[in-house]
Amino acid sequence: MDIKHNYIDGHWQAALGGTTREVINPANGELIGIVTDSKQEDTRAAIAAARAAFYERGDWQRMAGPKRADLLLRVAAAIEARADELARLDTLDNGKPLREARCDVDDAVACFRYYAGLITKPQGGVYEVGDGFGPMHAYAMHEPIGVCALITPWNYPLLMATWKLAPALAAGNCVVFKPSELTPLSAVALFEIFDAVGLPPGTANLVLGNGPDAGYELAQSHDVDMITFTGSTRTGQAIASAAVGNLKKVGLELGGKSPNIVFADADLEGAVEWAMIGVFFNQGEVCSAGSRLLIEESIKDRFVARLAERANAMTIGNGLADPDMGAIVSAAQLGKILGHIARAKAQGARLVCGGERYTEGECGKGYFVRPTIFDGCHRDMDIVREEVFGPVLAVQTFRTEAEAIAMANDTPYGLAGGVFTTDGARALRVVREIRAGVTWINCYNPTFNEAPWGGYKMSGYGRDLGVNGLQEYQQIKQININLQPGTVGWYQ
Ligand SMILES: NC(=O)c1ccc[n+]([C@@H]2O[C@H](COP(=O)([O-])OP(=O)(O)OC[C@H]3O[C@@H](n4cnc5c(N)ncnc54)[C@H](O)[C@@H]3O)[C@@H](O)[C@H]2O)c1
Ligand SMILES: N=C(N)NCCCC=O
Ligand code: NA
């Protein structure tokens, strides 16, 4: 089996220490790849390459915007040409159903196209300014930040990479990217594409390795100008602390425990399906998962019974066979999920369906868990407070709109939330009160490259996607122009 290497300064390179790491298919425990295993010294080499490319040669940042855009369009076309292979890679590596992986690839193609287009549109502004020193004129222009470090999790390997790489590169930065050590294979393919389209050496660098050894150096280094991270809140806190050393800019997309509120007047069959998409899509390994179902008391029994009936009918299996739900990413993550389930039971939540590992047929060799629903949950249970990052739903009831809103906001997180009702004014009132960065009305989880994505509260700060997602990776420079050069007679 080929060993996949780091991509530094336009070359594939083994980690200096020569050690490697096995990449596992969580559907059956089989070895699907071997990657180089980087340490701090490798990360430092990648940072040095990005710095030389940005500060010494500067060819990427000075390349005309339309030309940079053209290269990113070629990246999009190359991803599209390898779409089946890339979807298969993410399914093999992460465990997700193939049709979901295929959506991720389509979104990644569109994301590169979106930022290629956006970088050619007007940016900055022109300002009428005071004339205390004679006639003056001011404008603001957007510039790249410099060397950006990007760290992503394992739940959407290609898509999370793209959400950061596409805008960071479009803006003219040089980057060092570290994907999750659990799911590095599609990132390697993406860098093969960067290599093939001919990004200037040092523009995009790939470091393969774990968080403490390869990742943390990116947060700590004084040679990095910005770090953007998607992952757990705890790791985000460690990164933000380390980033203080040189006051690098920090962007954090962290965890969540998002509320999905269903009122009695909702289209209930639709709400059931969206609630399933909310918490069982991608095995529930979604930062925005609607993992707290807040349901109006009068319909609770009927709704939960229907939800359980449909959850029990979901097919589970190897993602390549395109089941309704695939494998959990790793043995460790499966263990965490089963731990959350055991604690919920111990704390008195009532198990409605699932609640155990799934081992039918070949699944015993992999890491599967049945879609799980707990009824009778209350605010001080861990299952209501802590992110599971698995297919586990906690159900609570409310009687009034005000109570639903208070329960929705009763969390340290603030990534997402949903509301189901046929009362339009109520839907708008409720989403306005939810303290979260991403909300849905009568749907849950779809998201689009055009609109900004990110959290409130302990779900982080900064935004991916949309115009804001480009501006994350840009400095703004004010330029003041004296329209009448000469002396002003200030000092007599
Ligand atoms: N808000 C969002 O958009 C979003 C999206 C996806 C996932 N998430 C969150 O990600 C979490 C699950 O992903 P995970 O388990 O991969 O998270 P994680 O924090 O364990 O790891 C994320 C990445 O950080 C790296 N890392 C770990 N420790 C590090 C350290 N000390 N210094 C630098 N890098 C380090 C990992 O190697 C990985 O690449 C969940 O909490 C989920 O909510 C958030
Ligand atoms: N619906 C999609 N694609 N969601 C991506 C969510 C990323 C965070 O986990
Ligand atoms: Na894997």
From TrEMBL:
Keywords for this protein: NAD, Oxidoreductase
Active-site residue numbers: E253
PROSITE patterns, A to Z: ALDEHYDE_DEHYDR_CYS, ALDEHYDE_DEHYDR_GLU
Taxonomy, superkingdom: Bacteria
Domain (Aldehyde dehydrogenase) ranges: 19-479
Pfam families xref list: Aldedh (PF00171)
Pathways per UniProt: Amine and polyamine biosynthesis; betaine biosynthesis via choline pathway; betaine from betaine aldehyde: step 1/1
Family: Belongs to the aldehyde dehydrogenase family.
Protein name per Swiss-Prot or TrEMBL: Betaine-aldehyde dehydrogenase
